[in-house]
Specification:
The protein contains four helices and no strands. The chain is mostly helical. The protein has two domains: about 30 residues, no CATH class; about 40 residues. The chain is elongated and about 45 Å long. The mean pLDDT is about 90.
């Protein structure tokens, strides 16, 4: 099944079912490990950021991206 077919199927779901799909997609994205290129881009953003709060957020994102976002990682 292609991504286009999956999207068309999701469009046919009830709003409640679509919400479950969205939550699943966010969870999968949060748990995945980032590629070297993605990690490098984040590291560059962290170095260039002037706001300490933004630096901390990017650092946390880097950590999740390196290890994956699973609770036991």
């Amino acid at each position: 099944m292609s991504a286009t077919q999956v999207i068309k199927e999701i469009e046919q779901l009830t709003p409640s079912e679509q919400s479950e799909v969205i939550q699943f997609a966010y969870r999968v994205d949060a748990e995945r490990m980032l590629s070297g290129k993605e990690l490098g881009t984040l590291a560059k953003r962290m170095i260039e950021a002037s706001d300490p709060v933004q630096k901390l957020r990017i650092r946390e994102e880097l950590t999740r991206g390196f290890y994956g976002g699973k609770p036991d990682a």
